[in-house]
Amino acid sequence: MRTRRTLLTALLTATAASATLTTASFAAAPARTIEVSTAAQLKAALTGASPGDTIHLADGTYSGNFKTSVAASAGSRITLTGSAKAVLTAGGGYGLHLNGAAYWTVKGVTVTGGQKGIMIDSARGVVVDTVTVHGLDMEGVHFRKSSRDGVIRNSRIHDTGNDGRGMGEGIYVGTANTLSDKSDNVQILGNTIGPDVGGEAIDLKEGTTGGKVSGNTFDGRGLTGNHYDDSWVDVKGNNYVIENNTGKNTLNNGYETHTQQSGWGCGTVFRGNRSTLTGATGDKQLAINVTNHSGGCKTTVYASNTVTGGRGLTNIPVTP
Known about the structure:
Elements: H1 2-25, E1 33-36, H2 39-48, E2 54-57, E3 60-63, E4 66-68, E5 78-81, E6 86-90, E7 94-99, E8 104-107, E9 110-113, E10 116-121, E11 127-129, E12 132-134, E13 141-144, E14 151-153, E15 156-158, E16 171-173, E17 187-189, E18 192-193, E19 202-204, E20 212-214, E21 217-219, E22 233-235, E23 241-243, E24 246-248, E25 255-257, E26 269-271, E27 274-276, E28 286-290, E29 300-301, E30 306-308, E31 312-314
Parallel strand pairs: 1-2, 2-5, 3-6, 4-7, 5-8, 6-9, 7-10, 8-11, 9-12, 10-13, 11-14, 12-15, 13-16, 14-17, 15-18, 16-19, 17-20, 18-21, 19-22, 20-23, 21-24, 22-25, 23-26, 24-27, 25-28, 26-29, 27-30, 28-31
């Protein structure tokens, strides 16, 4: 009996040890901090990162085009971080391209040069925080190809659209002339955009829904007026909240809504925005110009919005 019990105990102990070994062998690797000081190291880190990792950039200039397609998760993000003196400088193309790279955080760095700054394609939950983006031929930061639930906050964007074609938006959400790009629920919070932004500070395209533009500061000096780029914010998507922003200097209106596709450019709510139109040309400018206000496409402009200069607050009835 004792022999059988001894053998049974030994067997159970060996089985438990084997299970522990098997579990350990499949455990996730610990999160790393990857220190980077050269462009080659940065390119390697972007392609070799794993969920939970942090890529830390030393101060300095990183020349080239940088991209990643590594996806993280909501509970285990990948972070690319550095100070504003860690400068990604492109000679053309995209400065930083997150292509399918879901749940990344990009924090603190500067992106300059090239055609476009930070491009986010097919990547859910990307957070762009406290970055500086400037010196570009076209737009600064673009959420595209159904990059849902993104955030850009506390960032500085200026000197874009330098090719003069009117494609220098500060922040661009979605894709023009299509409804297939569902870059929904993008939050644009507390940024400073302008001056010398050739397109709108923010362009919210048809096909996108449910985002928020809150607490931003706009300076429209440098708007080109090309392709109707003549306001701080142009809303062509649905059900956006535009609140507590401050704007000055514009070629035309402060904020505009447009129906580029049937059923779009609807449901926008404006509240608490402060507009200064004294820099606008002519006398027909409005703080908020709504081009389609009907029973099936309503826009709400609250009396908490204010305007100085121009022709007035809005062209639709104001809600108390």
